[in-house]
Design a protein that fits this description.
Blueprint lengths: L1 E6 L5 E5 L3 H8 L6 E8 L3 E8 L11 E3 L13 E4 L6 E4 L4 E3 L9 E2 L15 E6 H14 L11 E6 L3 E7 L3 E12 L4 E6 H10 L6 E6 L3 E4 L3 E4 L17 E2 L3 H8 L14 E5 L4 E5 L3 E6 L8 E4 H10 L3 E5 L2 E6 L2 E6 L19 E6 H5 L2 H4 L7 E6 L2 E8 L2 E8 L1 E2 L6 E6 H10 L5 E6 L6 E3 L3 E3 L5
Parallel strand pairs: 1-4, 2-5
Antiparallel strand pairs: 1-2, 3-4, 5-9, 6-7, 7-8, 10-13, 10-15, 11-12, 11-14, 12-13, 13-25, 15-16, 16-17, 18-23, 19-20, 19-22, 20-21, 21-34, 23-24, 24-25, 26-30, 26-32, 27-28, 27-31, 28-29, 32-33, 33-34
Helix pairs in contact: 2-3, 4-5
Length: 473
């Protein structure tokens, strides 16, 4: 906190970083009992006080400025009363351990005879002009926006760090759980290096707003702001408070078809923080599969087997890998990294024991089966959902599938052509339609859907890849 003392009628200002009003007055040789103190201005980084003299006291010469030593430059002292000698070179203090600051103790640049014109010089961002290829920069910023946290959590986590050298630019984003670092060619002029923080979401929108006709993004870096292609100015700040993003060292493992496999299992991943281990995708690579479950349904997808042990990746991290098409991972020290959009994406893994999914998979050899077209079932949804109570539907299987839904808002009844192996009387399955739709969309690449179901109450199996527990009638 910077404290500014304005002495009424004299014009002297005393600047002191990171100290209270009591300490600032004491160091300036102003006794608190001899002055009326009024707080005139305040902010997160600066507080100003106006001092009115109660009686004639010794004080600094009119029109002169006394810059006090910074806290780290002070010698230890516990004085509560000091006397400032007018025109003198020393500030005398009395305490249980007497100490005197000699003129040699104060750096020459801390004494300024000139009239006050502003605050002490603060660190500024090195200036320069950065030229970056727009499409490459925009793609990286899109990943950044998927990672950066909400500003209300910690403002610095809503920013992106940009570091430039004469030949390249590195951008870094993190929310402390997920991180992304990318380096690509660029040109920096009028400087050897610069680095700053800027709001990630606004920067992405402004770069996108330039339009496809603009080939290069030109960022002019000033002391406390940046200008983008001469169109808009955004505030920027120093990178001192930005968290470090340590690299991960380990063996990279290639996983074929990782993106579609993640897309299949993500819908079933839990969002219930009470069962935290289920809020991620289980990479059971030794068994050759990915798994997601919320306790009411389970999705799995087949991938190549590897020797790596089982681990659980948070749902949001898995979603980013699925969105941008990662195909390899490195796992070490409870973290995962993957090449992504010209950079490296890292995520913290969920620690704990994931439930044994192999032991709950049923033997469907004796199950009844029904086959139908995915599109014909999905076409019913606009009519079913408005009158469905908690997305619950009844499916009556007997040569075809009759769909019924009912609630206080109305009812719905229609059918889907199907072929079944059911013999004897028809069977009714009550199920959450959202769970069924998620499974159909995840595993309907062939457009043909098979549901295997037992005669009694037990999980139904969709295309041998998804389990859904029915609702008891």
């Amino acid at each position: 906190m910077k404290t500014v003392l304005r002495i009424e009628g004299i014009g002297t200002e005393v600047y002191e970083g990171n100290c209270s009003i009591r300490e600032a007055m004491s160091l300036a040789g102003l006794g608190r009992s001899e002055w009326n103190i009024e707080k005139t201005k305040g902010s997160a980084t600066r507080t100003e006080y106006t001092l009115t003299r109660k009686q004639e006291v010794a004080r600094p010469e009119p029109g002169k400025v006394c810059y006090l030593p910074r806290p780290e430059e002070r010698k230890p002292a516990s004085s509560v009363s000091q006397a400032h000698e007018e025109g003198g070179d020393t500030i005398e203090s009395t305490s249980s351990q007497e100490h005197t600051l000699e003129a040699s103790d104060v750096q020459p640049d801390l004494i300024n005879e000139a009239a006050i014109s502003g605050d002490e010089a603060e660190p500024t961002i090195p200036t320069g002009e950065i030229t970056i290829y727009r499409e490459e920069f925009l793609s990286a910023l899109q990943v950044v926006c998927d990672i950066t946290a909400r500003k209300d959590l910690m403002p610095v986590l809503g920013t992106v760090k940009i570091e430039a050298t004469p030949t390249n630019v590195t951008i870094t984003a993190t929310d402390l759980e997920l991180s992304y670092v990318a380096t690509f060619p660029a040109v920096l002029e009028n400087s050897n290096a610069t680095a700053f923080l800027v709001d990630a979401a606004i920067l992405y929108k402004e770069v996108k707003a330039l339009g496809k006709s603009v080939e290069d993004v030109v960022i002019t870096v000033n002391d406390h702001s940046i200008q983008i292609n001469g169109r808009c100015v955004l505030p920027a700040s120093l990178t001192d408070d930005f968290p470090e993003v340590p690299p991960i060292e380990g063996t990279q493992i290639r996983i074929k078809n990782l993106k579609p496999a993640l897309a299949c299992v993500l819908p079933a991943v839990s969002t219930d923080e009470a069962r935290y281990i289920l809020t991620g995708v289980c990479f059971d690579l030794s068994a050759g599969c990915l798994v997601g479950t919320d306790g009411f349904r389970l999705h799995r997808a087949t991938v190549d087997k590897t020797e790596i042990s089982r681990f659980v990746l948070p749902k949001r991290a898995a979603g980013i890998l699925a969105k941008y098409g990662a195909d390899s991972v490195t796992v070490a020290e409870a973290r995962l990294s993957s090449p992504l959009v010209g950079g490296i994406f890292t995520a913290r893994l969920i620690e704990g024991n994931y439930p044994d999914h192999t032991g709950i998979w049923p033997d469907t050899g004796e199950y009844n089966r029904v086959h139908f077209k995915a599109k014909e079932f999905l076409d019913l949804l606009p009519g079913v959902l408005p009158v469905s109570d908690d997305a619950k539907i009844d499916m009556t299987i007997n040569g075809r599938i009759d769909i019924e839904a009912e609630s206080v808002t109305g009812s719905y009844k229609w059918f889907v052509p199907a072929e079944s192996t059911l013999t004897g009387k028809s069977q009714v399955i009550t199920i959450n339609s959202k769970y069924l739709v998620d499974a159909i969309r995840a595993y309907a690449s062939s457009e043909e859907i098979e549901i295997a179901f037992p005669s009694g109450y037990a999980a139904i199996v969709v295309n041998e890849q998804a389990l859904i527990m029915p609702i008891r009638r």
